[in-house]
Amino acid sequence: MVKKKPVRLRPYYRTRYAYQKLRVCKHCHHFTVLWEDTCANCGRHALIPVMDQAAINAKRSMQTERLAALLLTLVAVLLSQTFLQIAVCLGGGMLLTVLLWLLQRRMLPSETRRQLDKLLHGSQRLILEGIYLNLSTASAAIKDDEQIGYEILREIATIVHNDRIRLQQIVLLQSFVLRKDMDLELEPLLIEDFDSDLAAYIGEIAKVKRELIKASAIRYLLIHERYILQMKQGASIMTAAAGAAVRMKKYVDMYPDFIRRYARGLPRERFLRLYQIVRRNPDQSWDGLRDEVSAIYNEKYRWDPDFQKWE
Q1: Which element (helix H / strand E) includes 49?
Q2: Quick check: 3 and 32 in contact, CB under 8 A?
Q3: What single DSSP character describes residue 263?
Q4: pLDDT averages per 10-residue partition of the chain, 311 residues
Q5: In whole angstroms, what is the distance from residue 262 CA to residue 280 CA?
Q6: What transmembrane ranges does the database entry give (predicted)?
């Protein structure tokens, strides 16, 4: 059995949009999703968020428009034949330039978004090249330090969504001692096909961070229940997930048969939580779950004072 390593994962900074993880080099236009200080392509300290680059592009574009307006004003002045024409062209040109500047100030946020869209779509090849370089960095890091390798893959997974990267993350997570205080995730790692490492990881999450067990994880377990039960700790995985599910009544409503099948194996504290939900909802049978809970209560907890107070 492989001995798991205690690690301390750095906090994961979540962004509202995936593109906010991207940074671009102002010098060579290389992209990266990692936290590196220097550009891996040119070695310069010139990495900035893509949104900052989009803002720079927007301001540059607006500056070009203002220069064009001033140039037209100058041409109009040079072509003027009288002092009155010069004054009118100069005054009108300056007024229009000021109005253009005021309008641009109001339009800067929308122009920045337009420039961001243009930057991302026009740099797809460079973005892919940057991510491939990040993946190479991850592969090299895993050989020396699995923790750093996992953290790099976690950043890449924000942009690249495929099962290969998810499974690499799961295998690495399964080599760590998982704790409640760790910044863990589950839903982004779920795949469609059965994987024993993923099933084992769900079982551990159900014990150390049960709030991550949601409907998608339960559906995964139910779809692959037959294969999971063939695993050495398969029944324990399903029972742990059922114990995590009873933290919320909505999961009891959604998956009563699942919880009924594994209710007998629940630890006392998790069964007490299930018993409380059942007692608070006397009008619901949940496809026989209420009868199963009553039977387990009479067999094991009838004289337990923590249960008696709910009678």
Answers
A1: strand 47-49
A2: no
A3: G
A4: 81 89 92 88 90 93 87 82 81 84 90 94 92 91 91 93 94 93 94 96 96 97 97 96 96 96 96 94 89 94 86 70
A5: 21
A6: 69-102
